[in-house]
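Narrative summary of target 7.
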Amino acid sequence: MADLNLPILDLSELDRGPEAAARFRDDLRNATHEVGFFYLTGTGVPTELLRRLQKASRDFFALPEADKLAIENTRSPHFRGYTRIGGELTAGKVDWREQIDIGPEADAVEGGPDYNRLIGPNLWPAAQPELRGVVEEWHARLTEVSHTLLRSWALALGAEENHFEAAFADPATLIKIVRYPGTDAPDPQQGVGEHRDSGVLTLLWVEPGKGGLQVMRDGAWVDAPPVDDMFIVNIGEMLQFASGGHLTATNHRVISPVAPDDRISVPFFFNPSLDSVMPVIDLPEELRDGEGDTTSAGAYTIAGLYGENALRYRLRAHPNVAEAHHADLLAASASE
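Modeled conformation, tokenized:
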């Protein structure tokens, strides 16, 4: 695997004694300081679960159009459910993909801060009842991995192991099950446009043998192909902010496959509780790089409550849902 363009880290080193654990934390810090992306193995996520997730994902997208549209995201004020091809934007441009968005299962909340509108039930396909069980098991496993990584980053950056824990007591997770259909266009098409994740941490599983993800390294796009039973991990701008700019949120994109091929991927986004502010680490002197980039989120106020950032993003990425359920927020934003 020496030809891979990203570092490879083994999470199981944390269980092999103090020296191995310290080495893992150093490698984790270096990978996310220099690249912002890495492959992760040794997570303990069963191969059998990976295969069940792959089958469930394929089965969902094979459903008749009417069954998928029965849970279209325009039916959910919480931005959950199915997004048809062309229904999401990145940097104002259409992404060539279809997907189902799944968040923490909860009852809707009336009143309170505007970001409470993100809290609510998921939309599950009646024609595929087995999907929910697979996704909920996936969510539990990847939440454990994410907490482990956050504790490791805290130690690697000179903070207490539990530095991030209070802000992630009720994490605002998001699972996207995505299908990129193939295109016949002569030029590469935008599966997902160039961007940096605005949140904290992304764990990505990609169907074996399906390329398309590209990461910016040293001013050039490099391929990040999937590796069996490994995750591709990247950090977002909120963790970059929390590290004083020492860690790097990196531009990446997805190129659509060439027809008749297609591609399944499942990103898991792990972010603070909606009512939390991302805790900043006071870096030790040896890790301070001078003028780190801590304000790269553009229109997003990454130093504020996570819920405000998340709602702003969802309103921009899914204008159809915003228009259907949140016209008052759009009007208020337009008047500012």
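The chain has eight helices and 14 strands.
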